[in-house]
Amino acid sequence: MSDRFDLVIIGSGPGGYVAAIRASQLGLATAIVERERLGGVCLNWGCIPTKALLRSSEIKHYLDHARSYGLVAGEVGFDLAAVTERSRRIAGQLNAGVRHLMKKHRVTVVEGEATLSGPTRVRVGERVLEAGHVILATGARARELPHLRADGKRIWTYRHAMVPPAMPTELLVIGSGAIGVEFASFYADMGARVTIVELLDRILPVEDAEISAFVAKAFGKQGIAIRTGARVDSLVADAGGVTATIDGGEARFSHAIIAIGIAPNSETLGLEALGVATERGHVLTDPWGRTSVEGLWAIGDLTGPPWLAHKASHEGVVAVEAIANAPHAHPMDRGNIPGCTYSRPQVASVGLTEAAARDLGHEVKVGRFPLIGNGKAIALGEPDGLVKTVFDATTGQLLGAHMAGAEVTELIHGFCIARQCEATEAELMTTIFPHPTLSEAMHESVLDAFGRVLHI
Length: 456
Hints:
Elements: E1 3-10, H1 14-25, E2 30-34, H2 40-45, H3 47-64, H4 80-104, E3 108-111, E4 114-118, E5 121-124, E6 127-136, E7 140-142, E8 155-156, H5 158-162, E9 170-174, H6 178-189, E10 193-198, H7 209-221, E11 225-228, E12 232-238, E13 241-246, E14 249-253, E15 255-258, E16 262-264, H8 271-274, E17 278-279, E18 282-283, E19 296-298, H9 309-323, E20 339-341, E21 346-351, H10 354-359, E22 364-370, H11 375-380, E23 386-392, E24 398-405, H12 413-420, H13 425-429, H14 440-449
Parallel strand pairs: 1-2, 1-6, 2-3, 6-19, 8-15, 9-10, 9-15, 10-11
Antiparallel strand pairs: 4-5, 5-6, 7-16, 12-13, 13-14, 17-18, 20-21, 21-24, 22-23, 23-24
Helix pairs in contact: 1-9, 3-4, 3-6
């Protein structure tokens, strides 16, 4: 005996639960399967609770520098358990919110581990779910290597780093993508001596090289040590700390975080038996989310980089609208996915880096505007930042935008909209930006690319 649905979704992260909501809106009888907690890694162990931690460290930073704002504060301390508890409480609130949304939209929630016994046949324990279509949204987990494995005590993944049993004194962060950089920023602001080790030649290697260099310089001023082009050959933990072998030399730390990327959750689904095309564990899809097997779709981290919640959510909508033959269905545009890193300074970007644009044969015009020239940034006490824009010199097309500084993750959507609407430099230069705002730096960067910058 099996239950019949129009659509079954495996995984309830930002891709899966958003897909379920959209499917319900389009009239599809939908079930969603989750083996842990509704909301997936993002809501429970990633995007949101990490931002709660970073907010605590940001406030501590401001309290530590209260005098620069004309304020007087006593000795600033913190309760690590309370900081962590706040983060977990927020995660719990959001988990409950997703459960409410599933109930509101009449989505059947099935708890347990799912496997595929056919392209559109899902087994969860003794229960069998039949569907016209199945969407795989199983996400990913922290990547480890044979010589770099977490023990949860002294050597951590991102999950351990979110619920630390004690405050690190000397912290090694292995990897400098968004996860590594955010934890480095959090723990440094909370008082740890932090060292980042990156195998490649710069931190934040997916970002524009100029932005990477800017953040590295800012981190150096904060006391964060950075070793690029370096390899961690081994980690050995004992009761007192961690001994790391880095390029043949030993160094001692109280704790270490392994942040070398993520691995897709694809092994237990039964994909190989069905002949689903994969590459390094990631499921291959077309721009609509279709896999190589009829009726089977995949979205989110399972399908490869960029590993971002908003990418997964949008892919979920794209796939469901294709399944439902919705009149406004559209394929995924991977060239317009913004990236955000919530360190201090924040980093945000969309589109091509300057180097990538040149490699593709574009003749480019590049604009830059430092936040030291922005009145709002100075008033906020946050004058360290940079906005960089890259245009095609012939057509005026905005090829990419790259930002570092206070609250830039709240600004990047402006450049995303500009690219989505195919705005050129002409429209952007004649747009009126409000004063005083940080967004004026975006306008000035565009003006700078075409020799019309006003405030530098």
